[in-house]
Amino acid sequence: MENSTKKIISAFVALIVLTIIWGYNWVVMKSALQYAGPFQFAAMRVFFGAVVLFVVIYATKRPLGLKEFPTMLVLGLLQTVGFTGLLIWALVEGGAGKTAVLTYTMPFWVMLFAWPMLGEKVQGWQWLAVISAVFGMLLIFDPLHIRADGFSMFLAIISGVSWALSAIISKKLHQRSPHLDLLNLTAWPMLLGSVPMLAIAFIVPAPPIQWTGYFIGSVLFNVFLSGALAWLLWLYALQILPAGVASMASMLAPVIGVLAAWIQLNEVPNRMELIGMVLIALSLVIISFVSIKKHAPVDPAIGQE
């Protein structure tokens, strides 16, 4: 019993560490874009992140082979270009806090897309989550007074949509091939997706990268801490805790992102934005509680950022 308690405590400590890493990384990414174009930074993040994951796979003697190539390619495009590329683009002109919150509407989109794609109907308390999330997004967007960062907020939501679609496809892939290794399932889409990301980085004009100490540190932070270490902590927590509990804890990341942007970048949300963020947070909490109640496992591949 004592050993089990220690494992549970260590799993929660792992979750706290990774949510701090994921949450603070929004400020790191926003600040790093002073020294490089969004696509150049995104390309470095995903390519070197994939390299690190393959090193981990090799070191832990997990299967290296590529399976389910067409699906892996689609996942790579959604997770790398659609999710990572768009969220970093959104950070160029938008605030780190708002981008974090809007990107983390992902579970809301998963719930909606699961209806036509997986036959999982929205019902009961989930409708309250839908209403809360919709009103939250409307308050943040404030469509009657569109601001200069309207396009950035749109990109952040599309980033969350891409993340959600990749989660649905990952779940369908897991149902079809349940024995696929999770690290393999993460590394190959990241590597495949980094190819078009690198091409975009070379094609889209951007000022020369300023190789400052901060920029190099931010790339290393994204590759090793926000990438490899956070992923390993996530896998460790999932081995001990229910997936629903682990996923709900990871929702602290956008909260940390908002607070860090508030403190470090002076991004103070106005009253409407703050209410909208609270409504979106309420929606995510409802979705997580429903997931725990149903004992419906959440695919680990959707919990990254």
From TrEMBL:
Keyword match Transmembrane: yes
* GO CC aspect terms: plasma membrane
Identify the keywords attached in UniProt to this record, alphabetized. Cell membrane, Membrane, Transmembrane, Transmembrane helix
- Asked whether the keyword Transmembrane is assigned, the reply is yes
Bilayer topology: Multi-pass membrane protein
State which residue ranges cross the membrane. 7-27, 39-60, 72-92, 98-118, 125-144, 150-170, 182-205, 211-233, 240-262, 274-292
The family database entries (SUPFAM superfamilies) matched by this protein are listed as: Multidrug resistance efflux transporter EmrE
Read off the Pfam families from this record.
EamA (PF00892)
By what name is this protein known? EamA domain-containing protein
